[in-house]
Write a structure and sequence with these properties.
The structure holds 2 protein chains of 2 kinds.
Chain A lengths: L1 H29 L15 H6 L3 H33 L5 H16 L2 H18 L7 H27 L2 H8 L4 H30 L2 H6 L7 H11 L3 H30 L1
Chain B lengths: L3 E4 L2 E4 H33 L3 E2 L5 E2 L5 H6 L2 E2 L2 E2 L2 H32 L3 H16 L2 H11 L5 H8 L13 H25 L3 H9 L4 H29 L3 H7 L6 H9 L5 H25 L7
Antiparallel strand pairs in B: 1-2, 3-4, 5-6
The chains are: A mainly alpha, B mainly alpha.
């Protein structure tokens, strides 16, 4: 048994090393004072400082943030009311199954197919109005679409967890629909909504494929910028940028973990 | 339809209740129908259209895109596209298989930790899961660069010419894919491993079962729910992956994702791109169907 435990630890540690080696390498070379090549030439934070002087990168960071914020706000609203609408009303069984399938679509369809569908759809919309030219608006619409489904799934599972007793009690005490929603359902739902919104935000920050297909020349986001730069030549500045993105992700993930853990405990 | 019912403590007619329900349901559902279901249907239609001289769509319906995908082209019959499709399935299967093999020890290791530190370890696995995939893919450029020990070792063993990087290659694609999808398997699997009933394992040991039999009879059936979710979560996106093969495989190791991207990018052949998307969709639905048949009654999320 001891031997198995030892093997287990070794295997687990090498797997974790395998997962983290690439990330560590990026962080390591982001503070390497060598413009070309990968030889260690000493510690520097120059690449980080230069990052904040680069107009293109700042613009991309701004786009990423706007995209994530706007799409998260809209999709959290849409997803929440969608979840309430689906869970709290006696829909016929067949309709419920249809709703359920629609909501699961973004989860099961490979994102490249969704992106392709978006390209084709926006191609048609473009003939109606030029505001649908590839750009930030298209990206926001596409992001809202898949985020709404994820938010709705998270909020719905929370709704199912609340149960119906408290709302029944509110009704017994003559609460009308608006009052019950504002004073009972939504406050109980808040942890679920926050968790859903965090998930949506992280999904948006993380997304590459859908943005890649719908972006225009002015709406480059950070993942797109990194991708384009990597295809030409990888510079230490890209390592610095990636390391910053990594850190933001880590902070977000830790926050998300804490919130969802609290939700599950309640 | 118009009879009174009690719903969440409220006395109301069914009709009134559903009317109120629509008020909640319509905005989100309408959005999903407009920007998800409808574009999907249009994509199906487009896959039967043709390509004009300037990359525009020509509405002459035919199955030409599909026959082209099967290899009948202007220059006779080649299996290039079929080969790419098969390779995508193969890469997805290998990625999933190796991720499963690596995930089991990882999950057992974390599950055996005391509760206080267990979630810390779990977060360690979750962080790569959420890290941007472009960054995780190109990070392998660094690991596999000629200056680093791995490429030097390969050059020493005369596998590659000295001074050459280990990418683009099939190996680089597999490394990238597995590091990308391993957390997708490990996280759902962990939720099953955490709830494992160890008394069954002890019973098997008492009865002198070999380690292999313990795994097959006492561990595998118990972890099947988490495992099958992990497999589905991996195999579906792995088949459509395009960043990893694009950056780490180059033209040497093209997958169906790259093929689709090419049609919507450089080639501007939307109709053919739509047809390839449909092929990928069929592969996806097929694997979901297998999953449903194998494991009844397990929720995806």
């Amino acid at each position: 048994m001891k031997k198995i435990n030892l093997l287990l630890s070794i295997s687990a540690f090498s797997t974790m090393a395998f997962l983290y080696l690439p990330l560590m390498a990026v962080a390591f070379f982001s503070v390497n004072d060598s413009k070309y090549g990968l030889e260690w030439k000493g510690f520097t934070l120059d690449w980080y400082i230069k990052l904040f002087e680069n107009e293109l990168i700042l613009h991309a960071a701004w786009n990423t943030l706007i995209l994530a914020l706007v799409s998260t706000l809209v999709s959290t609203f849409l997803g929440t009311i969608l979840a309430i609408g689906m869970d709290r009303f006696p829909w016929p069984r067949k309709m419920n199954a249809a709703f359920d399938l629609t909501m699961h679509l973004p989860v099961i369809i490979p994102d490249i197919i969704f992106a392709a569908a978006m390209v084709v759809a926006f191609g048609f919309l473009r003939t109606l109005s030029s505001i649908f030219d590839p750009g930030l608006l298209n990206m926001i619409i596409a992001h809202i679409t898949f985020q709404t489904a994820f938010v709705a799934l998270v909020v719905r599972s929370r709704l199912a967890g609340i149960g119906k007793e408290i709302e029944e009690a509110a009704r017994d005490l003559y609460a009308d629909t608006t009052y019950m929603l504002m004073k009972v359902t939504l406050p109980l739902l808040t942890p679920g909504i926050v968790a859903g919104a965090m998930l949506a935000f992280t999904l948006s920050l993380d997304d590459f494929v859908i943005s890649f297909f719908t972006a225009g020349p002015d709406s480059i986001t950070l993942p797109l910028y990194i991708y384009a730069a990597v295809r030409r030549v990888v510079t230490p500045q890209i390592h610095a940028l990636s390391t910053l993105v990594l850190m933001v992700t880590i902070i977000l993930v830790i926050c998300m973990e804490r919130i969802t853990r609290r939700v599950n405990k309640k | 339809m118009n009879k009174l019912i009690i719903w969440y403590g409220e006395l109301i007619t069914n009709q009134k209740l559903l009317k109120r329900g629509l008020f909640f349901l319509v905005p989100g559902m309408l959005w999903l129908i407009l920007f998800l279901v409808l574009p999907g249907l249009i994509l199906v239609l487009v896959s039967f259209a043709g390509r004009g001289d300037y990359g525009n769509l020509v509405w002459e319906f035919s199955v030409e895109n599909y026959t082209r995908l099967m290899g009948y082209g202007l220059f006779g019959w080649t299996l290039d596209y079929v080969y790419i499709l098969l390779r995508s399935v193969w890469v997805a299967l290998v990625t999933t298989g190796l991720s499963v093999v690596l995930s089991y020890p990882l999950c057992f290791y974390i599950a055996k930790k005391p509760l206080r530190t267990r979630y810390l370890w779990l977060t360690v696995v979750i962080i790569p899961f959420w890290t941007n995939m472009v960054i995780r893919a190109y990070a392998w450029f660094l690991i596999l660069a000629p200056e680093l020990p791995f490429a030097k070792l390969a050059a020493f063993l005369k596998l590659i010419p000295p001074g050459a990087p280990l990418y683009p290659s099939a190996l680089a694609v597999y490394l990238g894919m597995i590091s990308m999808f391993l957390p997708f398997v490990a996280l759902p699997l962990f939720s099953s491993v955490e709830r494992l009933d160890w008394t069954l394992v002890e019973a098997a040991q008492d009865l002198y079962a070999s380690n292999f039999r313990i795994f097959m009879h006492a561990i595998l059936p118990q972890t099947l729910p988490g495992l099958s979710v992990g497999i589905i979560l991996t195999i579906v996106p792995a088949m459509g992956m395009f960043v990893v093969p694009d950056l780490l495989g180059g033209a040497k190791y093209m997958l169906v994702g790259n093929l689709i991207q090419q049609q919507f990018g450089a080639s501007r052949d939307y109709a053919f791109g739509a047809a390839i998307s449909m092929a990928l969709m069929i592969l996806t639905l097929f694997s979901l169907y297998m999953y449903k048949r194998k494991s009844k009654g397990i929720d995806l999320i």
